[in-house]
Amino acid sequence: MQSVSDLVNSSTFIFIGTVLELGASSVPFVPPNEKLITARLDESLRIDPVLGDLRGKTITIAVNSAEQFSVGQQLVFFTNSWVHGRGIAVREVAHMEPGQSNPVAAVVAQLPQRHLLDRLQDAQAVVDASITHVDPPGFTLDQHDGLWAAAHLQVNAALKGDTPDVFYFPTAEWPPWNRMPRFHQGQSGIFLLHIPPPGTVKEGGTLPEGSLIAVDAADLQDQSQAPQINQFLAALK
Fold it and tell me: In angstroms, how far is the first alpha carbon of the chain from the final one?
């Protein structure tokens, strides 16, 4: 059995649920079979907030075998999203007794700090700054380009790395760019700026070579987080 920490890291949809039916499906275009069960969601432990409040909703779960479950059984389900639309279906990673829910919730609560630590470690520059103005993206024929806008900075303090005066962020309204944060003039805080992943800078694209980017919600932190960020950065040295 994997540790609670490993299970949380490998699961994006974690909840306490009560088994309703074996071999059943609550999603119209997922036909019932012996590797499906349905469960009522009793408590969310790790679920994307965009899905809203799912308490009381019926979730279809793809499992190795429905025979290992019994109707009325309550469990902590570690799963990953599969289908959203006219119902929710997920794929099981593991399950455990509900008495283990407190350690699971504790690990989930630590995820934002762990994610911030990862982003700080990866960042090429961390600055306390404000955005003075934003240049819209240039023209490109690449229909998959991120349409990168340039945010110009007034830097108050450099907490890590150099002191860049501009960074780029995507404005495209198609995946994966549409899930990334947008920035605007007057915004201030602590910016975590990163080297673009390989393949992001393309000939004829709107992201210049040598640029730094911010593409994660954690890449802008409130200035009140400065003491914690400085502690993390000191620990990373």
Answer: 34
Per-residue pLDDT reduced to its tens digit, 178-214: 999 999 999 999 999 999 999 899 989 999 999 999 9
pLDDT digits (tens, 9 = 90+) for 49-76: 888 899 999 999 999 999 999 999 999 9
Tens-digit pLDDT profile for residues 26-36 = 999 899 999 99
Rounded CA-CA distance 106/10 in Å is 16
Give the dihedral sign, CA 201/207/212/215. negative
Which H/E stretch holds residue 88? strand 88-96
Query: What confidence tens digit (pLDDT) does each residue in 85-96 have?
Result: 789 999 999 999
- Scan for tokens 């961390």, then name that residue: 126
d(CA 215, CA 195): 11
Residue 43 and residue 72 in contact, taking contact as beta carbons nearer than 8 Å:
no
Percentages helix, strand, coil for the chain (3-state, rounded to 5) are 25, 35, 40
Rounded-to-integer distance, Cα 71 and Cα 69, Å: 7
> Does 130 score more than 90 pLDDT?
yes
Alpha-carbon distance of 50 to 44, in angstroms, equals 13
Structure tokens at 14: 């974690």
What domains can be seen in the chain, in order of their start residue?
Answer: 4-106 (2.40.50.120), 123-236 (2.40.50.120)
Which whole-number Å values give the CA distances from 154 to 165, 185, 222, in the listed order?
7, 11, 16
